Amino acid sequence: MSEGKREEEALLKPMEIENGLRLVPRVKLNLSIYPSTPLTLSHAIDEWKTKRALIDFLQTSLSLTLPEEDLHITRHKNLKKRKRDDPVAAGTLRVWDLSSFPTEDRFLEWRNRLVENLNGIELNLEGLKFKLSVTVPYCDDFNRMKKEWEEHSAFRSRREPDTVILRGMPSRWFAEPRVSSKPSMLVTHTIFSTFGKIRNLNVAEDDEFGKDANEDSGDLVSGLYCKIVVQFDKYRDCQDAMKVLCGRSLEKQGSRLKADYEVSWDKDEFFRNSRNQSQERTSMASRRDNYRGEASRRQGYDSRHSPENVRPRRFKVRY
Question: How far apart are CA 252 and CA 22, in angstroms?
């Protein structure tokens, strides 16, 4: 078997990394449900009936058996705030069993066919017809991201990117046990060194992640997720890491949770801009200190030469 074929097969199997973590391949599709014709809804659609209608369609029309827990539907709760073009519900569909695909090409072909078969179907819910829109998440489409960075690099006359940005990583999985619940630079460095030599690394809490998707559920717990920015020493390592990270979820040994993160490449030169900002802050601090020193010297000079501190000069008058 050729090395290329072995690499393709490896992409369809779980990958063990450090700290009891592993990357699990899966299919994830984003779903949006719209009325087939413009109409005013008096009540929100039933989430359970929508799920059942989709699961039945997958089984009868596409011969795909999907457990109910792998299909998540969230309805638009406040219909008065819904705009005419907004969906009435949104959700995600996940397929975990990819054992029947011997190569990546067959898997991608099947995923594209699944999207085509689902996109645009009509669902009859409580006497009303709704249309389904289906897309592959951007962060799951490696070929699309690669094409985008090639165009970006050609336009800017730059080489391929070397930095990966990850959002939605569970903070406690990157923390030092019994030390802190906050993500650790040392632990994170150890984990991502699996993919190659690291040049720069940044880890920070990401309280903004998931707010848009959970706008009706109140504030999320602070510090739940972290954002990780990894700059590799070699462009090849960055590309290989992105290919592995696309289309997978993160799993921790001993936990039933599978974390869906977002992966992207760095368009904004994070570390270069961070250095520039640091230099700018240092320069501003230096200018501020110089200004304060100059102001202090002036204040001392003015106080010495103020009218109350100036002694009158005496002149001798000769007669």
Answer: 7
